[in-house]
Design goal:
Largest sheet of chain B: none
Structural class of chain B: mainly alpha
Oligomer: heterodimer
Structural class of chain A: mainly alpha
Shape of chain A: elongated
Helix content of chain B: over 70%
Number of domains of chain B: 1
Number of strands of chain B: 0
Order of helices and strands of chain A: HHHHHHHH
Number of helices of chain A: 8
Radius of gyration of chain A: 18 Å
Radius of gyration of chain B: 14 Å
Number of helices of chain B: 2
Strand content of chain B: under 5%
Strand content of chain A: under 5%
Helix content of chain A: 55-70%
Distance between the termini of chain A: 32 Å
Distance between the termini of chain B: 24 Å
């Protein structure tokens, strides 16, 4: 028996509930841990993401989508858009309402504009980490 | 001063998530979170001073 075959014997299938928890954790930050009754983690990690997102908006930051390129390639908008998409429903609601996507010179002149962008990006990226943490816990790979 | 406080806030938020998910015991999490926070601040300040002396 080769080594890879022996390793395959120990791989346990991922329970379908773990995928559901992961999806919920992405869609509503903190909800993945809430589903597993990890109250402290949900409050800490979810709270940080919500806080970071709203601080970013309050600072005048803007989120990225495929239509906000200022004369540059649309492809350049994709990486920050993926980061923003990590915020889940927060991004989707803002996108539907058209709020937080303005990128005009008046807004860009605010001293906190770039900070706001950074906080919005980091909210999404941290939620990806939170989602993976929730998925790992649900799959039994992490406590 | 305000820029520094915003950087501290950013570092604190990131450190909370990193610390919460990285280690096993509460003590290890606290220590790791503090370490991440300190690293963000030190590296941020160092990069700030390096960029200050670079004549763009």
């Amino acid at each position: 028996m080769v080594k890879s075959e022996r390793l395959e014997e120990h791989v346990e299938p991922t329970p379908s509930s773990a995928w559901l928890v992961g999806l919920a954790a992405w869609f509503l930050p903190g909800s993945g841990h809430l589903m597993m009754r990890k109250w402290g983690r949900a409050a800490l990690m979810g709270g940080v993401i919500w806080l970071s997102f709203f601080i970013g908006l309050a600072m005048g930051g803007h989120m990225f989508d495929l239509t906000t390129g200022q004369g540059s390639s649309v492809l350049l908008q994709v990486p920050p858009m993926i980061a923003n998409l990590g915020s889940g429903v927060l991004y989707i609601v803002c996108w539907l309402l058209g709020y937080g996507f303005a990128d005009d010179p008046v807004q860009a002149a605010r001293a906190t504009y770039e900070y706001g962008n950074t906080f919005l990006l980091i909210a999404g990226l941290l939620n990806y980490l939170t989602m993976l943490d929730a998925f790992d816990i649900a799959a039994g790979r992490h406590s | 001063m305000r820029h520094f406080l915003v950087m501290c806030l950013f570092a604190a938020l990131a450190a909370v998530v990193f610390g919460a998910m990285a280690k096993d015991t509460p003590r290890e999490r606290w220590l790791y979170g503090l370490k991440v926070f300190a690293e963000f601040i030190v590296i941020g300040l160092a990069l700030g001073w390096i960029l200050y002396f670079i004549p763009w």
